[in-house]
Amino acid sequence: MASNSVGRWIRSRRLLSFVKSPEFRAEKTSYSSQQCLLHSSSKSMNEESNDLSNQKEATTESEDFRVYQIEGLKKAPSAKRAEQWSKRAPPPRYHSMPIDQDWTNVWPTATTFKWSAIPFPVRQGYVENSSENESVIPSKYANLELMKGPNFLHLTPGHVKKHCKAIKHFCTKWPEGLQTEEDCHKHFPLESITADYVFAGPTLTDDRARKACIKFKLSDLDLDYHAKDKFIRLVGDRYDSATDEVTFESDRCPLKSQNLEYVKFLLTAVYFESWKIEEWEQRKELSDMEKYNWDINKSSKTCLSLLKTIKEIDNASGNETSKLKYLPEDVQDSSSVYDLSEIHQYKTAVEELVNDGENVETLTSYKLAVEKLLNLKTDV
Amino acid sequence: MSFHHLLARSRPFSSSFLCSRGIFSTASLNKNRKSGVPKITPFRTKPLTYEEAVPPSRINVRKGWLSFNTTNLHEEKRAGETTFEDFLVRRFLIGTWHRSLASEVVIKRRHNMVILSFLVSMERLLPRQVYFLQGYTERLLSGWLKMPVKVELQTVASQRDMVFKKI
Prior knowledge:
The complex is a heterodimer.
Chain A: H1 4-20, H2 22-39, H3 45-63, H4 81-87, H5 103-106, H6 144-148, H7 157-167, H8 181-187, E1 191-194, E2 212-217, H9 225-235, E3 239-240, E4 245-250, H10 256-275, H11 298-317, H12 334-338, H13 341-356, H14 360-374
Helix pairs in contact in A: 1-4, 9-10, 13-14
Chain B: H1 3-9, H2 15-21, E1 47-48, H3 50-53, E2 67-68, H4 79-96, E3 106-110, E4 113-117, E5 119-121, H5 127-145, E6 149-151, E7 154-156, E8 165-166
Parallel strand pairs in B: 2-3, 4-6, 5-7
Antiparallel strand pairs in B: 1-8, 3-4
Domain Small ribosomal subunit protein mS35 mitochondrial conserved (chain A): 206-274
Keywords (chain A): Ribonucleoprotein, Ribosomal protein
InterPro entries (chain A): Ribosomal_mS35_mit (IPR019349), Ribosomal_mS35_mt (IPR039848)
């Protein structure tokens, strides 16, 4: 109800009521009598006599019997009327609203539900029986329930259009060449994750917002076998083998930017550290290996010696049918033996069997590799 | 007089003694005492607003909350401070809008803004007094709470307009 026009309205109403009120009439009469007195100095005799007769009349009137006024019998005009008028609220705004008005000017921002500015009927509440509000759901006037919840009267399509028009000036075009997720990942492999907290309180800062985190795929880093292995060992559980992602997180510094800088430093430090080969790393033994490697294990030597024995027997017997045909003439050269496809298949099968565990696929491939290696016949 | 002598003269601590003093501790006797549920008068003359008529057990069913803030959400802070501030604000408003506060005070907090919405009865107030009190409330509370306080009040012609039912 706050506006200048309202104030003016109230003042004018008060003036109007004052004109109507008996006090005003009394003042008016007294003024006229004063006027008479002022003019009396220049008055003629007959005028004076008129005045005298008037006075006489007044005295005769006053000499009449006074009529006893029973208090409260006649309804006297209320002296408080002017005050009451001034207190009465102006009519609600929705009465004077044109039907084609711009709603965004009526309700420009988020504010509490205001019944006097709502041009449509709304009711909220629950009535159980006729004893409650004459079994009518409370209307929008004097309804606190409607004032409680948030409303969306400031977010109509008209408002949204206006907002968009206002902020369009600040928007820029989406960069070329970043249409897909893969493009984005290719050009920006490092993902940094930070959070801001919005809450109700006297300050907008929150100590939880200092946390910073970076994420990247290990395959995006330029690493060889040793460096990759060392990197994974250094970062520990920050590496997720399922997604090939490394996550660095920090909340040790008081500011977000400091934490972000720190995690980037961590990445740099771990990267260069993983490329270094220390003197003690040369003393890595079979039991220190991160996974089963057929080339350096006993299995490769056993396989080679077995093939050599088979070759010796084959050469001695001279039976063409039972010979291993894929073996070269010279089995003393171990590198040529290792390059054979049968050996390679066996190697892969054994590595898979040990690294991935025993399951139907690894066992079947192992069986096939062994059959091929030793020229076994299963259908016999 | 010795302590033992006093003890001998005092009434025995029995169940009949408890009943005569009106001390009950059983649940069945307290079943009709509930907070926020007003007692019915003999001739049903006590006027109630909607807020008073709906019991607290119906909050979020038939009526809404009176305080809206984020502090009671999971892992949020300042729950105690906010509750105390709300208490302070309500007390202050009852005193400032003395006999003219027609409803409860709804305290909404958005970011660092505190929005107070309530209904004011115009029976004892002039419009200019309402404007003054609105500014007074905003200024003083903003200073105390260290947050901008906004008063979004609405007026009712009389306290009678608020009556929802009589019990």
